[in-house]
Amino acid sequence: xxxxxxxxxxxxxxxxxxxxxxxxxxxxxxxxxxxxxxxxxxxxxxxxxxxxxxxxxxxxxxxxxxxxxxxxxxxxxxxxxxxxxxxxxxxxxxxxxxxxxxxxxxxxxxxxxxxxxxxxxxxxxxxxxxxxxxxxxxxxxxxxxxxxxxxxxxxxxxxxxxxxxxxxxxxxxxxxxxxxxxxxxxxxxxxxxxxxxxxxxxxxxxxxxxxx
Length: 212
Fold this sequence. Notes:
By secondary structure, this protein is an alpha+beta fold.
């Protein structure tokens, strides 16, 4: 094979590989669509939770205040403590599922006062309740020390799609992500009052996928 023929073949292969990677990336976005609270504590949900914590997950109603900010669960709890004068933050995860294909644990904080709990935050999806998994009993640290997101896909094809997405995220999304400070987030993020009036937020992950 001549040099020119070899170069043409390499370019064709590179183009084909890029096209395949882009296809997988957009297909992976399907894993994150229609995320919802697990309808029941199935064996797969419990197994996923047990891989993250020795604590027992439980359902809790979403009871945000009008001032609660989207994506600011820790600050929401701190503000609720300030206003009520009691309680403390309970760290853990909010568990999501997409049918049998995908599960996700997202760092989350709720209010606790003795045996009483309250989730003073809300989700963009409008969930009426969440599945909350407290951090492990051995956890020592601040809310920022809780893993931000833990993902698990099921099935050979979905596992491959998630691998491609997480490689893309590590290379392009995370290094270029502009993180707002707590004060900036409190000033700019959507309040529950505005959400009830119909305003919605487009997650950064989906924005990145659309622009890739």
